[in-house]
């Protein structure tokens, strides 16, 4: 018989008829969607329902379940009407299973044995005290003298006392060993009991109130849970010969939701359900003159109490801080998944059925493997470092944006290092560094450092410095080279800093918005040298020394 889909409407009012409670035979987690800060779980179950009003109980739901997110849907062979769904907390008892009862019985028996060993300890202490009393007090308490021992009897008395003390000593050693072993057994049983008690947290039971005409019905429960997250990681390997970058996008998934995900369909989504539903609202931003004291210790505007100044700005700053915190959490830093991409969200369907335990351990899943052509170039700061570094410019042509995360960089299969990068959108470019290029040698020489004076009437002090940078290539192909250096930046308008006219003009000034940083673009031809000459002049009034040089 074909199943006829039936909409299971969630109504606000419950049915007035008395409903019989039926416990579902068990629900299984069929699919999980993990977001960067939570998870949405789908449970499913199928069972035969008799006609009438019922309350279907779905047990063993995690207590951390977001109750507002719970949704119920399904289909069946006959019409089913749901009047309400509620959640009931369930607390497990101290002896909820047979193993606990066995351990408690075992602990009681061990405690009884412990009491028996303590009784033996008391008996030995009494025997030892009696012998010590005989040795220390040869006369009885009534003052009558004990029969004198003849010299022939002394060895026998000493032997008896010594043997008694030896027997007590041996029994003490044996008793101590038994007490130690018993204490270890008690500790093991108590530890297992404590562990079981800690594992017995409260659970939730979903009570689905419904009416049906009978037949087979299938239900699906969807709910969200905290304690789950995923973060991207990118393995990028540069093939310098082919000038290609192989990017493997993976995800680290970890969860401590309280329920294991065994054999589920796993989806990793870029959406953030916790980010809110709407943009913040702005309130009036008041400004005014500062209050003026009227001379009597009172403010002239004391009677005027506007709204707190810049309260809306403080709210905006707070929102920005929260967003920065979220970005940092994302950057904290997984067969290929199917990508479903839209303008506002991307979802990766992990291949096959997977298992993720609720122990908060990281599990890696591969999401995508892509190849991109790149352009290679060199960058060097010879003033600070005598090496040239290899860079690859990636023009990202993927379908979905790459979330903020860790990039692990390799060159020709050799690991170079890692970095954390922000979001990369389709069509954007990213400059990636791949370490020192040993095929290029650099030299940085200071040609002049001259002090002097200028001006006819008022003398200005001057300082001129000239430098030469030489780069030699061992590559078989021409490679673009960017040389970076800097000029001093004056913090006083009387100090003038200028590039010498004979210097090669820089390709860019104030690189990356850094005052005084200059860049020269050169082409480093194979087996040849490139040379850069530049210098600067500093002029300032008087002869006082300058700081910072």
The major sheet is characterized as: 10 strands, mixed
Shape: extended
Report the C-alpha radius of gyration, rounded.
41 Å
Strand content: 35-45%
| Strand elements, count | 25
The topology string of helices and strands comes to EEEEEEHHEEEEEHEEEEEEEEEEEEEE
Please, what is the average pLDDT?
Answer: 80
Count the DSSP helices. 3
Low-pLDDT stretches: 1-17, 300-334
Number of domain modules: 4
Structural class determined from secondary elements: alpha+beta
What is the multimeric organization of the chains shown?
A: single chain
Q: Roughly what percent helix?
A: 10-25%
End-to-end separation: 90 Å
Structural features, described:
Strands 9, 10, 14, 15, 16, 17, 18, 21, 23 and 24 form a ten-stranded mixed beta sheet that branches. The protein contains three helices and 25 strands. It folds into four domains: 20-92 and 201-225; 98-140 and 155-199; 228-436, no CATH class; 440-541, Immunoglobulin-like (Sandwich), CATH 2.60.40. α1 (98-136) packs antiparallel against α2. It is of the alpha+beta class.
């Amino acid at each position: 018989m074909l199943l006829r889909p039936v909409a299971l409407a969630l109504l606000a009012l419950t049915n007035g008829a008395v409903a019989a409670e039926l416990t579902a035979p068990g629900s299984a987690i069929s699919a999980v969607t993990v977001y960067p800060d939570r998870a949405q779980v789908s449970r499913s179950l199928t069972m035969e329902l008799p006609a009438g009003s019922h309350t279907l109980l779905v047990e063993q739901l995690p207590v951390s379940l977001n109750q507002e997110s719970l949704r119920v849907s399904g289909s069946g062979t006959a019409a089913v009407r749901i009047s309400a769904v509620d959640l009931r907390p369930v607390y497990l008892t101290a002896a909820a299973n047979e193993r606990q009862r066995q351990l408690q019985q075992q602990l009681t028996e061990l405690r009884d044995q412990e009491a028996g060993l303590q009784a033996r300890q008391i008996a030995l202490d009494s025997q030892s005290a009696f012998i010590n009393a005989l040795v220390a007090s040869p006369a009885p308490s009534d003052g009558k003298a004990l029969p004198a021992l003849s010299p022939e009897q002394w060895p026998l008395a000493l032997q008896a006392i010594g043997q008694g003390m030896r027997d007590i000593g041996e029994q003490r050693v044996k008793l101590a060993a038994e007490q130690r072993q018993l204490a270890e057994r008690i500790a093991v049983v108590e530890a297992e009991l404590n562990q079981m008690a800690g594992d017995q947290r409260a659970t939730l039971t979903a009570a689905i109130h419904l009416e049906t005409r009978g037949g087979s019905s299938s239900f699906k429960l969807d709910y969200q849970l905290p304690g789950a997250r995923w973060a991207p990681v990118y393995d990028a390997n540069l093939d310098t010969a082919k000038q290609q970058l192989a990017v493997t996008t993976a995800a680290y998934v970890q969860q401590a939701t309280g329920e294991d995900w065994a054999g589920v369909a796993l989806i990793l989504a870029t959406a953030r359900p916790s980010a809110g539903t709407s943009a913040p609202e702005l309130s009036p931003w008041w400004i005014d003159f500062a209050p003026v004291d009227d001379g009597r210790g009172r403010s002239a505007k004391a009677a005027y109490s506007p709204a707190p100044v810049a309260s809306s700005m403080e709210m905006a700053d707070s929102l920005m801080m929260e967003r920065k915190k979220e970005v940092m959490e994302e950057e904290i830093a997984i067969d290929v998944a199917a990508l479903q991409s839209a303008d506002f969200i991307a979802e990766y369907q992990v291949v096959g059925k997977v298992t993720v335990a609720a122990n908060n351990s990281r599990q890696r899943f591969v999401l995508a493997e892509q190849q991109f052509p790149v352009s290679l170039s060199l960058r060097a700061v010879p003033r600070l470092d005598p090496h040239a570094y290899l860079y690859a410019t990636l023009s990202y042509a993927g379908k979905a944006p790459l979330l903020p995360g860790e990039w692990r960089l390799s060159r020709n299969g050799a690991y170079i290092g890692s970095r954390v990068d922000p979001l990369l959108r389709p069509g954007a470019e990213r400059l990636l560094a791949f370490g020192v290029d040993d095929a290029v040698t650099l030299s940085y020489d200071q040609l002049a450092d001259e002090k002097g004076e200028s001006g006819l009437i008022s003398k200005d002090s001057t300082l001129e410095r000239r430098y030469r940078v030489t780069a030699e290539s061992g590559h078989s192909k021409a490679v673009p080279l960017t040389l970076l250096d800097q000029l001093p930046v004056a913090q006083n308008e009387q100090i003038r800093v200028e590039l010498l006219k004979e210097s090669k003009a820089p390709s860019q000034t104030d690189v990356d918005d850094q005052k005084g940083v200059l860049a020269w673009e050169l082409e480093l031809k194979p087996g040849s040298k490139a040379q850069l000459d530049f210098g600067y002049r500093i002029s300032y009034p008087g002869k006082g020394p300058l700081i910072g040089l």
